[in-house]
Amino acid sequence: MRTSSNQWGFLSQSIIMSQYAVLSVGAKSWRCLPCLRTELRLDLTLSCGQSFRWRETGDGHWTGVMGGRVWTLTQTEDTLWYYTYSMQDSEGKVKGRKRSAEARPDGPVKRTRGMITVKEEPAEDQEPKAKTTEHDHKEEELLKDYFQLNVNLADLYKQWGTADTHFKSIAKAFTGVRMLRQDPTECLFSFICTSNNHISRIQGMLDGTPYHDFPTLQVLADSSVESCLRNLGFGYRARFLQQSARQIMDTHDLDWLDSLRSVPYLQAQEALRSLPGVGLKVADCVCLMSLDKAQAVPVDTHVWQIAQRDYRCTVGKGLKSLTDKVYRDIGNFFRELWGPYAGWAQSVLFCSDLKKFQDLKAMAVKKEEVTEVNITNKKNKKT
DNA sequence: GGCCGACCTGA
DNA sequence: CAGGTCGGC
Question: Which residue range or ranges hold the HhH-GPD domain (predicted)?
Fold first, then answer.
């Protein structure tokens, strides 16, 4: 399977053509938002398996597609910087507005690795300032919505830490792990691909360059899609993808998936489970990561292991794989522990359990041991 | 209702 | 075997 090229690309319109006018922009214009690193850590949040299409394209610079635009994001201790690229169609015409020539004197230096080139646009294509402001406002709102910045993460961490000492010790090194609010269609079809699969292969299937919009329901529902995706290495999941798209098109309105945002958690979960390739785990991922169900706790083998190892949770002990009942019991166990945002808390521990972050976790554990030693010493001194 | 094997693929 | 799900006992 090719992992270097865009696996979905042939199903959707490229936003950026790789051979010419790549990331076509005018004068660079970074904009920013006040945002503490304790509220958002781009590196943790964008690479912990919620979304598979963000890439670190430069040191601390993350590039991906969201809301029909290509974004590059980076951050300092208290500021989130963002940069969007004009969208073009396949004929190379710029569809979005051209960028204004306003530049940040002290903005972060944009660095890219290889694949991305920048073409300058003539400055005369600037649009009136009023429209620019309106447009800028819309992009700021897109970003706030995607990262759910209205949710105060520091407060949640405090609550979870009070209820759960293990969380508290881990959380010190993993602040700012935040739930994204993704597009439901992209989220659903991405997570159908995760079953019985590894992360590296999932990324190979879903990530790619050049940057592109996620394929639409109509495209995915086409009968030719299964064989196409099989040829690209999607395996038996190819059929699930095509069939799920077909079923949604045949039995629901086009906005059915989006409309699940406004129905109760268990109802949304049940609705999703009617789709081929969607069991409890995938349904919970979609509920949590795109349908505003903060209490959904996706229980995979990692989370099950965390429950047993770090919480002495005996639910389902001895079983080789999760039954639906055990799955629900473990979810309830965590919901009772963490409360209505249990799914958000779960993602922090899930993140801390990833192999690539073990060095970070080791630091937290080390601090914890030191703390324990100090407490013990104090006790010893007292007695 | 719960248990078990099959399912694509490649690190 | 891997961040499951499905279909058959």
Answer: 193-347
